[in-house]
Design a protein that fits this description.
By secondary structure, the protein is of the alpha/beta class. Helix content is about 30%, strand content about 25%. The chain contains ten helices and 15 strands.
Length: about 325
């Protein structure tokens, strides 16, 4: 049996660089030699024993990778040596991955392979929620995104601005406020010393992308524009809030819960295809940028996770192999 190395989780959920059987691709799968994997908050939850991979995926961290095609199905558009990035359900912290070929796409022209590792999960999440769940954003509408300096926040700011929105976001420092404005945010609220609700009253959002949730979320819905869509993708500030349901029907609001990881490979493949068709040209033209905060070797995975745990990052954190 051929073996490979992977950063697995042991019985105590500690990282361990261990030998595991090398993946054997099925008929419709691409085998990728991993060059880099990005760190996501879902990885932190999985490390803490709270967010396991779907059953059909390896039970260790890693939702997006970049690398070189090692083998591809007969008749595939991919050939050995192609530079690609891929969306995964788990298992990206390893020397090799196997992925349904619909979830694999070429990296954008002129982008290096390390930066490309931070594309699939973030941009699929943002595209899914702004285009599918929200039904798009019209020019002039207000878009509100929490945690603007995160990987998802930075991507959402850029895509919403590209769609003509006015963008409001939250950050935890003045330095991060300056950064998110540099990537397109119109208003950056430092939640440590400003009241988010006051800003939303003056800028009623038509679309909100929220990874924070928490007790204050329900009150924010009062300030949504008529027909607004509030999309909740995580609850970093807590799972409980109080919602005045009258606001939902009076303003015809939509409160939408959304995750990417639990979707089928077919759904993810459609989203990846849309990224390649609609967004990759914008990366090539410099209209969208994938911001990288830091790059660590896989041996320093604990340090990489620490950056996200302390919310130090402005952009993606990448692991290299």
């Amino acid at each position: 049996m051929t073996m490979m190395k992977a950063m697995i989780l042991d019985e105590q959920n500690n990282f361990k660089w261990a030998d595991v059987p090398k993946f054997e691709p099925k008929a419709d799968e691409v085998l990728i030699k991993v060059a880099a994997a990005a760190v996501n908050r879902a990885d932190l939850m999985q490390k803490d024993g709270q967010y396991p991979s779907p059953p059909e995926w390896p039970q260790w961290c890693g939702l997006e990778v970049s690398g070189l095609v090692e083998s591809a199905p007969e008749g595939s558009r991919f050939k050995v040596g192609d530079k690609v990035c891929a969306l995964l359900g788990g298992g990206g912290y390893s020397e090799y991955v196997v992925v349904p070929q619909g979830m694999v796409i070429p990296i954008p022209e002129n982008m290096d392979i390390i930066h490309a590792a931070g594309l699939p999960e973030v941009w699929c999440t943002v595209y899914l929620n702004l285009m599918y769940e929200a039904g798009g954003i019209k020019p002039g509408e207000v878009f509100f995104v929490q945690a603007g300096a995160s990987g998802i926040g930075i991507a959402a700011i850029q895509l919403a601005k590209n769609m003509g929105a006015k963008v409001v976001t939250t950050v935890g420092s003045d330095e991060k406020a300056a950064f998110v404005k540099s990537v397109g945010a119109d208003i950056a609220v430092n939640y440590r010393r400003e009241k988010v609700k006051d800003v939303l009253k003056d800028n009623p959002p038509s679309v909100a992308l929220d990874c924070v949730g928490g007790a204050e979320m329900g009150s924010y819905l009062e300030d949504m524009a008529f027909g607004g869509r509030w999309i909740i993708i995580a609850t970093l500030a807590g799972k409980d809030t109080t919602v005045d349901l009258r606001n939902l029907f009076k303003k015809r609001l939509k409160l939408i819960g959304s995750t990417l990881r639990s979707r089928t490979s077919e759904e993810k493949s459609r989203i990846m295809s849309s990224l390649e068709k609609e967004l990759w040209p914008l990366f090539t033209q410099g209209k969208l940028v994938n911001h990288i905060h830091a790059v660590y070797p896989i041996s320093e995975v604990e340090a990489a996770h620490g950056v996200l745990r302390r919310s130090e990052n402005t952009g993606k954190v990448i692991l290299t192999f």
